[in-house]
Queue: 2 jobs
Job 1
Amino acid sequence: KGVQKSLGTFFKKS
Amino acid sequence: MFEAKLTEGLILKKIVESIKDIVTDVNIDISPSGISLQAMDSSHVALVSLNLSMDGFEHYRADTNMVLGVSIANLAKVMKLADNNDQITLQADQEATHLKIIFENPKTERTTEFNLNLITIDSEHLAIPETEYSSVVTINSGEFSKICKELFSLSETVQITTNTDYVQFSVEGEVGSGQVRLGHNDSEKKEDQTILEVSESVQQQFAIRYLNMFNKASTLSSFTRLCLHQEQPLVVEFKIDNLGVLKYFLAPKISD
């Protein structure tokens, strides 16, 4: 079904 | 010098239990205003974010900002030494090599002390953007736990759909397909309430096994808050009365 996205796709490193 | 005493030590024990299956090594950030941590799971799909305010502690002192690197697995082992009625004190010197953890039970006069060795962790810190979530669902934490647990036996993935009338958890697997739908319910019995605050409906898919791990925190809070936005990870939030908040972020599954 869906492909698991990683959080890095949404949040940038600070 | 850092020292913090929590009268209801059980809360700290529960917090450690609620994060130990997701994150292994964690940098705990100590500041004069409180304790916080942020850590991702090894696959970078889920993130734990904890904020505890100094106001919730019986005694709190932190002269400067400090970072304490700990193995959560080892911290969990140490926490097992605590009785549920113990008060817990955390202590660390400047440039500390260990975190001193003291469990005290004023009734039984039992005191346990452990110096947990600190470790150096090279961890990535993520900037989580301020997001106005278009759907916020507040639901009894026990009920949400049960829904996730039972649905996981039927499917690995849940689709969460929100609109102004209801929140729906639907699954589709080899067994078949179905959904649990909860409508807005502001009944007098507070624990039965489901509060929907939806400005824009959201439909996203998530791996249920992570939700099950997050739900270990349901012992910390009577309610779970789900914050959703179509373009953002899900936030599963547990408020800890008078002390702070434990949040989990989960990246969605996206169909190609």
Note: Chain A is about 0% helix and 30% strand.
Job 2
Amino acid sequence: MNAFRFLGDMTHLFSVLVLLLKIYATKSCSGVSRKTQELYMVVFLARYMDLFTDYISLYNSVMKVVFITSSAAIVWCMRRHPQVRRTYDKEQDTFRHVVLVAAAFVLALIFNERFTFREICWAFSIYLEAVAILPQLVLLQRGRNVDNLTGQYVFFLGAYRAFYILNWIYRYFTEGHHSRWISWLSGLVQTGLYADFFYYYFLR
Amino acid sequence: DSEPEAHDEL
């Protein structure tokens, strides 16, 4: 594993934990899109279906479990925690996220490495991850002031994707590893969405 | 043609 991949994983982990701790410590999820969080939970569940079938390393398995449980904890807090759920901006968080799920699913059925359950789940998770931040970006644009922590959360998520692209470039030249074109294309779209957000974020 | 390799990234 190269440094870019590791930094990518760490910024990703950090973004999720920062958000969970923020919600838990302040007992508030104001400014956080529950729809985006639900999409991420679906992303992790679909992608890490291979947890029991393909063993890569202890590191990979532990990280997969951490991502699934921490995203589920965020969603649980926003839906069920007696104090946190009252701070959810339901009227502002109106993005039709089901549309994204349906579109990602149809894309995965058409464009996949192979027409198998594993590969369709994987492609679906990659497509959905690329656009999962959209409800959060819409919510941020509606709010007057972007909360520092929410801004940092989006920043770390963007950094994660950027590091992953560097990791693919590095692997391409050192290992001759051809990351699948599905990840390249989706990763670029995803990073572009974040770059766009930060362009306006820093302008303000 | 063989089954695609397992996904080694997160």
Note: The two ends of chain A are 38 Å apart (CA to CA).
